[in-house]
Amino acid sequence: MPFVLPDLPYAHDALAGQGMSRETLEYHHDLHHKAYVDNGNKLIAGTEWEDQSLEEIISGTYQSGAVAQNGIFNNASQHWNHMQFWEMMGPGAGSIPSELERRISDSFGSVDAFKQEFTAAGVGQFGSGWCWLVENSRGELQVTKTENGVNPICTGDTALLGCDVWEHSYYIDFRNKRPAYLENFLNNLVNWDNVASRLNG
Ligand code: MN3
Question: What is the 163 CA–ligand 1 centroid distance (Å)?
Fold first, then answer.
């Protein structure tokens, strides 16, 4: 199925008071995300992937490991990653729902300890990529990091929270200060209700 660029679930300036400017969202959503959609559609046209779901394209091209599929994988996975990323943020910093807070504390000791591990994963991802809070197949919460467009679909995990640590995500608002961007993301930008809604059980 053709990739479609969704509208942001809020106005471009809705997160400006929380550390993500209108300019960042104009570049990041309207240009970067759109490019993954447009390039992905060009690459899947006329191929075996054309009629597959986005998730099938991501896991199928990743598992094939074929160099010829890299372009399709990269654009499909980045399209999926950004759709999750927009939904995982929101206007107004809400509190963490109690069930999610309990699961985080059970897995990491405390919410603060989770935030430290998540930030360390994002800071420690050399070059472009993502850091994640995932629920694995055993129902455990884990922090992971991935390079470029690789995401939890590739490892069979459920993405609860993901943060884009490509420079285009933070350079306008935070310049080279990736740790400050990650700290602000966790404390001011995350839509914890959305994160909690992704738990499997
Ligand atoms: Mn990005």
Answer: 9
